[in-house]
Design goal:
The chain has 320 residues and is of the alpha/beta class. The chain has 8 helices and 16 strands. It has a 7-stranded parallel sheet with strand order 7-10-6-1-4-5-11, sandwiched between helices. α2 crosses α3 and α4 runs parallel beside α8. The protein binds flavin-adenine dinucleotide.
Length: 320
Amino acid sequence: MSILVYTESENGKFKKAAHEVVSYAKAIADQMDTTVTAVAVNADNAESLGTYGASKVLSIKDENLSTFNAKKYASAIEGAAKNEGAKVVVVSSSANSKYLAPLLAVGLNAGYVSNVVETPSNITPFTVKRSAFTNKAFANTEITTDVKIIGLSNNSYGVVEHGGSATVEDFSPSIAESGINVESVDKVTDKVTIADAEIVVSGGRGLKGPENWGMVEELADVLGAATACSKPVSDLGWRPHSEHVGQTGKPVASNLYIAIGISGAIQHLAGINSSKVKVVINTDPEAPFFKAADYGVVGDAFEVVPQLIEKLKAFKAQNA
Ligand SMILES: Cc1cc2nc3c(=O)[nH]c(=O)nc-3n(C[C@H](O)[C@H](O)[C@H](O)COP(=O)(O)OP(=O)(O)OC[C@H]3O[C@@H](n4cnc5c(N)ncnc54)[C@H](O)[C@@H]3O)c2cc1C
């Protein structure tokens, strides 16, 4: 019996969330005195997962899984879990993992808890803490089924290097037929995505119009960040809907979130609460966002942001 963890990759490269779920699974394995087996799908360098605590990697190389399909992926992971006799399966909280986890739960007759933020507080009964009500509350939840699935909230545990090594085994599970076939996926941009970003630079209606986004993009470029926006900004067509964050948009779990000209309405905050450090730039000292901020600049974005870009460029040049 080992802890099984599904590690996501893109174009053969593991995502940051993959390293985090393995680190987290290792912590649970230590609690339960067992080991971690990772499932990697069409990924290169499977052995590298040993660094984060995997003892074994089941490496699946299959054309059938070249694009994400929840049913097919769930069946492959189910095969791996049964092969290992896993009692705990860990997945991330990415959109894809949230899509496949309920199917996996059906296949394994398992209880699934999403948005988990900590290692289990108890193994018997198996109790995990999850965020609820768009991060405004926590629920301590018992999973009573024999097999348990945990969806780890992204960026809640972090990546921990253990310096170990993993053995890699080729694994060929039977893959379910699906009524949906994804033929190809065309990405809109090569830029870092909001879900994977360590840093997100986000703009609101305070930026007055789409013509002023040059400085947001420049700041994001200097920081290697993703760009995001508030809902009205995407509703107005200033920015694509894929950038809208918040309760009805994408969740952000970055290490740094810079909000420029965003008031901090509860629906916006609901999506960014999991970000570690929040910096707010706003002309209005009474803007609600300041209450949620770690650092706040009361000032005009059109003065503050260009100066910030200049300082960051100078800092980078000095430290190059
Ligand atoms: C059901 C529902 C769901 C919603 N879901 C979401 C969601 O998912 N995400 C979301 O974002 N919103 C959502 N909203 C909308 C939300 O309630 C707010 O209306 C929205 O977040 C406000 O966007 P904003 O902060 O960009 O704009 P505003 O509220 O107009 O705020 C603009 C801010 O910019 C500041 N400002 C103005 N000029 C400058 C300047 N020159 N420099 C610096 N600061 C300046 C102002 O002081 C102000 O604080 C939802 C609303 C509802 C009802």
